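REQUEST FORM: STRUCTURE PREDICTION
Request ID: SP-0412
Submitted by: Lab K.M.
Chain count: 1
Length (residues): 132
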Amino acid sequence: MCWLDEVKWDANGLVPAIAQEVGTNDVLMFAFMNREALARTAELGEAVYWSRSRGRLWRKGEESGNVQKVHELRLDCDNDVVLLKVEQTSAAPGDPAIACHTGRHSCFFQLYRDGAWQTVDPVLKDPEAIYR
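STATUS: Completed
RESULT:
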């Protein structure tokens, strides 16, 4: 049996994927992978996801330059969630390591507090300067 056959893909052939930063253990982002995305991720050592909005494979950093180098691939106990332990790189030396399209380090920058969602992490780089 191929290692990809052990993953429990949903009805659309997708599996949820969580990117967690090596070292800090910050949860950077959540996305989906199809079989080809997971296979390419393992082959390249860089995160490749399935973009539902684009309807195609999407290599993290293909537009922004903020690549995720994969240190470990893990599968949860039910075989239906993939965890990528990644090193989030920056687009250029001296630039911050950004995982979120909003220009933040992590996509999880909103904290529920006092009955409302509050933005608690700063924008590190203007998204207009990241995505052209």
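NOTES: The mean pLDDT is 95.
Reviewed by: T.R.
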